[in-house]
Amino acid sequence: MATDVHGEVATQAAAVRVQGLTRAFDGRRVIDDLELTLRPGEFTALLGRSGCGKSTLLRILAGLDREIEGAVHVPERRAVAFQAPRLMPWKRVWRNVLLGLPGNPDRATAERALAEVGLENHSGAWPKTLSGGEAQRASLARALVREPDLLLLDEPFGALDALTRIKAQQLVGELWQRRGCAVLLVTHDVEEALLLADRALVMRDGVIAYETPVDLPRPRAIDDPDFTALRAELLSQLGVDAPARTT
Ligand SMILES: Nc1ncnc2c1ncn2[C@@H]1O[C@H](COP(=O)(O)OP(=O)(O)OP(=O)(O)O)[C@@H](O)[C@H]1O
């Protein structure tokens, strides 16, 4: 079952179908007649220069912004994780995981999701005692506990140090393969997109201006010539000349 952002039921084979989407702020069209289809179980990366409207699109898909024109069909079960983990400091980790979840879920439900992200020993901890990477994993657990058919990730690794970021990327890749949900990952990092995604999109001038399948075997290697070629193509689409790699 799927609903549009206004709560109407829609029948569809796609996980997400967006048609003629427009969102303006103060008369300026940040999203301008945008079309987008995401297939069930597909991992899609969304790239684009700062301010091009990626987060705006993600918030619309999450149902957090409804001041739109056009049609947006998304699965009922969807969850979002942002760059900042957004944990409530006065609630223990397991209560944060269950925050806003309908019904009366018990601690064991939260702990199953926490175990999936390797935080089984932090269920009773206060958020302030978590490292940045742990807090981000708790935020992922809060998304996973909703059993989403669509997982929306807005630069979830952006604030992490390089090593923690690599581990978090691997974790998301594993979770996606295990869960089989559709993922839309907003990222500034072309390599991150190519390591994780089935398809990469570039947003420009309010639309998806470019897209490419990422037909590379997994796990992916950044020194693979096909990887390097796709990286150069995506960087050029983003208006950046690809620097030569020295490694
Ligand atoms: N609530 C709002 N009110 C007014 N303008 C907004 C609002 N939200 C977003 N914008 C504007 O819309 C444009 C797109 O913002 P958005 O956050 O979607 O970009 P982005 O591609 O996610 O950027 P970044 O990569 O820097 O996070 C920006 O110019 C921003 O200033």
From TrEMBL:
<dbReference type="InterPro" id="IPR017871">
    <property type="entry name" value="ABC_transporter-like_CS"/>
</dbReference>
<dbReference type="Pfam" id="PF00005">
    <property type="entry name" value="ABC_tran"/>
</dbReference>
<dbReference type="InterPro" id="IPR003593">
    <property type="entry name" value="AAA+_ATPase"/>
</dbReference>
<dbReference type="InterPro" id="IPR050166">
    <property type="entry name" value="ABC_transporter_ATP-bind"/>
</dbReference>
<feature type="domain" description="ABC transporter">
    <location>
        <begin position="16"/>
        <end position="230"/>
    </location>
</feature>
<keyword id="KW-0813">Transport</keyword>
<dbReference type="GO" id="GO:0005524">
    <property type="term" value="F:ATP binding"/>
</dbReference>
<dbReference type="InterPro" id="IPR003439">
    <property type="entry name" value="ABC_transporter-like_ATP-bd"/>
</dbReference>
<dbReference type="InterPro" id="IPR027417">
    <property type="entry name" value="P-loop_NTPase"/>
</dbReference>
<dbReference type="GO" id="GO:0016887">
    <property type="term" value="F:ATP hydrolysis activity"/>
</dbReference>
<protein>
    <submittedName>
        <fullName>ABC transporter ATP-binding protein</fullName>
    </submittedName>
</protein>
<keyword id="KW-0547">Nucleotide-binding</keyword>
<keyword id="KW-0067">ATP-binding</keyword>
